[in-house]
Amino acid sequence: MPERLAETLVDLWTPLIILWITLPSCVYTAPMNQAHVLTTGSPLELSRQSEDMRILSRSKRGWVWNQMFVLEEFSGPEPILVGRLHTDLDPGSKKIKYILSGDGAGTIFQINDITGDIHAIKRLDREEKAEYTLTAQAVDFETNKPLEPPSEFIIKVQDINDNAPEFLNGPYHATVPEMSILGTSVTNVTATDADDPVYGNSAKLVYSILEGQPYFSIEPETAIIKTALPNMDREAKEEYLVVIQAKDMGGHSGGLSGTTTLTVTLTDVNDNPPKFAQSLYHFSVPEDVVLGTAIGRVKANDQDIGENAQSSYDIIDGDGTALFEITSDAQAQDGVIRLRKPLDFETKKSYTLKVEAANIHIDPRFSSRGPFKDTATVKIVVEDADEPPVFSSPTYLLEVHENAALNSVIGQVTARDPDITSSPIRFSIDRHTDLERQFNINADDGKITLATPLDRELSVWHNITIIATEIRNHSQISRVPVAIKVLDVNDNAPEFASEYEAFLCENGKPGQVIQTVSAMDKDDPKNGHFFLYSLLPEMVNNPNFTIKKNEDNSLSILAKHNGFNRQKQEVYLLPIVISDSGNPPLSSTSTLTIRVCGCSNDGVVQSCNVEAYVLPIGLSMGALIAILACIILLLVIVVLFVTLRRHKNEPLIIKDDEDVRENIIRYDDEGGGEEDTEAFDIATLQNPDGINGFLPRWGLPTQRWEERNAIQTGCV
Ligand SMILES: *[C@@H]1O[C@H](CO)[C@@H](O)[C@H](O)[C@H]1NC(C)=O
Ligand SMILES: *[C@@H]1O[C@H](CO)[C@@H](O)[C@H](O)[C@H]1NC(C)=O
User: Fold this and answer.
1) CATH code for the part of the protein at 390-487
2) Where are the transmembrane segments (predicted)?
């Protein structure tokens, strides 16, 4: 057996074989007596080590032949012997010298160059440097010539349990819901041990709890912390301090340990119902408080926190459910009672409400513990307030006919003082709403009378404000709008809807409609207008025109024959009587002017006698030029006239109106209206005989009429 092993060694390690002699277990017990020998690989030399080899083979360990071991943290009086280099080369006469080089050669490891003993001269720390790589060589003592190639080997620093476990991330914080079941996982912690984790138990950790029992437990190997009691109550105790220990050497005595703390906070679950602080609340409120005003607050306390403490408030019963409402104030977690409808002390002086607070976020796990709500009673006392007068209606609508007599009563308002000490009321009209003082009011009974006549055609509505004042307290004032509608009375006669001017074609046919007219009436009868048209009684048998009423309330004027001729008669006047359907009916006579004109075959008016008639409103460019030419001509005449007179040395005095009339055309600005037959008719200047039969014109302002004639006279 030793021989076979030796052969293997020779195969592996020629020429230098590094041999480890000691057993690891021996190192702990008697390190001082042990030495490591490195020897060159001759079978002979190895046989000398056969006794040691037998020990090695018995240990059944894997051998690493190029390693030496040295214990860390060794501190004795003498340097510790790590091992020995030895070569079995035949030195002959030469002396052999051993040379060591590599990590720590000479500083940490020292070699006796004659004996080959290697000593560690410094204390070693495996956690700092676990192995050193060195090179050994045998050289000729005299010449320093290498006797064989250098050989590399490793000195491993052997672990001892010199590091305690450490919790690098501690202290720890964790949360777990209150009321959790036993064994609920809370968190896990980890400790680290710097010692060699693969060799020995120096880094084998076991966890335990030093403080924090019986609430929490820890799994020794995994360090998972769990609850050890069921139903821990946050409302009883919220925070727990747990001290955790990690111990190496598998927890055996002699091992090193480290501790950390874990703070466990129980989080809230909704396991508590709300509870009103009082079962009865008293509030009082003046009857005239503004709607929406907060009257009082009720609060149900809840031992839970956050949303688990949130409650919604409701009025669930009582005689004031219609008048009051409660809103939940999420911020203050209380309920605010507000007024929803007006109070009246005189009607009801107190109310009782039953209010309820109910948790919003119910946890089904605990709903069997009972309803998560509570109720309380709220008593509200209404206090009397001095209130202003109250009108019998919030608005009034009065209707009055426009012909109502002055001082007649058109309506009445009433008001009363709602207070128990009912004060008499005085009424007045807010004059800002009746600037024209159209109405009066009786201060005592509120009867409204007419002060000035009404005209519906001027104003249909008179919207005024009536003021009621308490006699005993003038500051108690109320106002009410009163809309007065003026009803129609038939006080306006119908008339033509516009100024019509009709044209009649000389070549027209009998029965032809020459004009359609409609009427208007300022009144506003309920069933709309219905007009009756007729010719004046003396004109009923008019040989020239006839009238025909149309469906749409309008009237058509028809020519009766085709014998009209401008030369014979240029203009016809047709008075028409229009009456309305009022009771009694009103009527008026309007006169239609009909001009005879020359027309084309298809009935388009070509020319009436006077061009201006064809252009009744705007003057054409040609007409303007004509007017201008007229004025210049007149000026020339005047200048000539004056110069001639001067030449005759006659004073410039107009002696005789007739002289002027001969020469100057005068514009009479004072139009006399329809009946002004005295208006200056310039046409007579040109045609003193009046052969064209010009009659006084109704329905046209005289001035315009004369202007047109002026154009005709001067220039056409
Ligand atoms: C007056 O009041 C009536 C009824 O409220 C309303 O219809 C009308 O428009 C008002 N008239 C004026 C001029 O304010
Ligand atoms: C009818 O017209 C003729 C001339 O065409 C005239 O003489 C007569 O006065 C007219 N009658 C009426 C009633 O206008």
Assistant:
1) 2.60.40.60
2) 613-642
